[in-house]
């Protein structure tokens, strides 16, 4: 290798590997250093090493990505209490937010993941803790990559509601996947049925959502009850009328109204159940399924197979648990909870 090429490679590698101070440069040592830099570049190129810088910044210089999946305006001291207490106990924010660098007069970063951390740090700085700074990890991401990273980070978090995630999925369907539910499910490494339930939740009429005392209590497990009664025009009109009545009564401060999501659902279903029964049209006969054709493998966010739904009949669901497949117990428990919500709604 010519001395000119060596110099170029050394300059390129120095941007990813800090040079050791006081290091001697002997004729034999130079080959080792160059080999180390070559290895470092190869690791970065292969993805074995991730070089994402972290910084402590002023949260006022960060703005929320307009397609962020959390309702920032709905955050409050109560919803962020656990995180605020954790930052106070540790003296700092432990987990960095994921941001993109931007160049605007008022902002330096765009927040992809970490809106709740941003709200908490901002609140602390405004309430006698100006020393607390916002820890961020800077990445170079496309919008579609930003959506998937945000979804993966928040999927296992209980503080992000199903409704917020569902609305985010509905927006992403057209923005990144051309309206293809199949392509979206493939990119998220989830089943189409799983994605479909979230999309159904996001498509609930606004009047129905507003009927709930706390819309963020709505879950994908509730879709199995609500979706069927919104199909026919007659049932839909009854449900919408009752939803508007509940909303107006709650706004007027009336008492004796449903206090939570299950009670609200029962009230909405009651207006359909009280209507005169209609004769159901016979369903067309379905072709029998081949054995194993309805098996679905559920994966972890990292792509590890957790369990397989082998089939279902009148008595129940049969599944195989891949307890030695490399996934964690927490991931398996989350997958089982999703299955219970789907097949055995509360």
Write the layout of secondary structure elements.
Elements: H1 3-14, H2 29-46, E1 54-57, E2 62-64, H3 81-90, E3 97-101, E4 109-113, H4 115-126, E5 134-138, H5 143-155, H6 162-177, H7 181-188, H8 192-202, H9 206-210, H10 223-226, H11 233-251, H12 261-273, E6 296-299, E7 305-312, E8 317-321, H13 329-343
Parallel strand pairs: 2-4, 3-5
Antiparallel strand pairs: 1-5, 3-4, 6-7, 7-8
Helix pairs in contact: 1-2, 3-4, 5-6, 6-8, 7-8, 11-12
Labels describing this entry:
Conserved hypothetical protein from pyrococcus furiosus pfu- 392566-001, ParB domain, alpha/beta, 11% strand, globular, single chain, 5 domains, 346 residues
Using the alpha-carbon principal axes, give the shape. globular
Major sheet strand order: 1-5-3-4-2
Low-confidence parts: 4-31, 275-280, 284-293
Proportion of residues in helical segments: 40-55%
CATH architecture of the largest domain: Alpha-Beta Complex
Q: Could you say how many structural domains there are in total?
A: 5
Enumerate how many helices there are, as a single number: 13
Distance between the termini: 69 Å
The total count of strands amounts to 8
Radius of gyration: 26 Å
DSSP strand content = 5-15%
Order of SSEs = HHEEHEEHEHHHHHHHHEEEH
Average pLDDT taken over every residue: 80
Task: Look up the CATH topology of the largest domain.
Answer: Conserved hypothetical protein from pyrococcus furiosus pfu- 392566-001, ParB domain
CATH class of the largest domain: Alpha Beta
Main beta sheet strand tally, sense and closure? 5 strands, mixed
What's the CATH H-level homologous superfamily of the largest domain?
Conserved hypothetical protein from pyrococcus furiosus pfu- 392566-001, ParB domain
Structural class designation: alpha/beta
């Amino acid at each position: 290798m010519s001395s000119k090429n060596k110099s170029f490679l050394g300059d390129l590698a120095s941007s990813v590997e800090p040079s050791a101070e006081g290091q001697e440069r002997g004729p034999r040592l130079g080959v080792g250093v160059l080999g180390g830099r070559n290895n470092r570049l190869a690791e970065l190129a292969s993805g074995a090493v991730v070089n994402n810088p972290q910084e402590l910044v002023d949260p006022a210089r960060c703005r929320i990505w307009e397609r962020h999946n959390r309702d920032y305006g709905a955050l409050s001291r109560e919803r962020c209490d656990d995180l605020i207490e954790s930052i106070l106990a540790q003296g700092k924010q432990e987990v960095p937010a994921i941001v993109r660098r931007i160049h605007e007069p008022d902002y330096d970063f765009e927040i992809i993941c970490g809106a709740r951390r941003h709200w908490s740090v901002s609140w602390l700085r405004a309430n006698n803790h100006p020393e607390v700074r916002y820890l961020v990890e800077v990445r170079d991401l496309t919008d579609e990559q930003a959506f998937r990273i945000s979804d993966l980070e928040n999927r296992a978090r209980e503080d992000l509601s199903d409704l917020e995630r569902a609305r985010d999925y509905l927006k992403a369907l057209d923005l990144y996947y051309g309206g293809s539910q199949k392509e979206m499910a493939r990119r998220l490494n989830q089943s189409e049925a799983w994605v479909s339930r979230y999309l159904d939740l996001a498509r609930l009429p606004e009047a129905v959502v507003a009927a709930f005392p706390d819309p963020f209590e709505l879950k994908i497990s509730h879709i199995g009850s609500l979706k069927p009664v919104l199909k026919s025009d007659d049932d839909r009109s009854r449900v919408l009328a009752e939803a508007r009545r509940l909303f107006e009564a709650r706004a007027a401060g009336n008492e004796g109204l449903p206090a939570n999501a299950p009670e609200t659902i029962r009230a909405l279903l009651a207006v359909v159940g009280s209507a005169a029964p209609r004769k159901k049209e016979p369903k067309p006969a379905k072709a029998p399924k081949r054995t194993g054709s309805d098996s679905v493998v559920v994966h972890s966010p990292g792509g590890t197979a957790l369990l397989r739904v082998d089939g279902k009949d009148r008595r129940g669901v049969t599944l195989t648990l891949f307890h030695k497949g490399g996934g964690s117990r927490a991931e398996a428990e989350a997958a089982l909870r999703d299955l219970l919500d789907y097949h055995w709604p509360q």
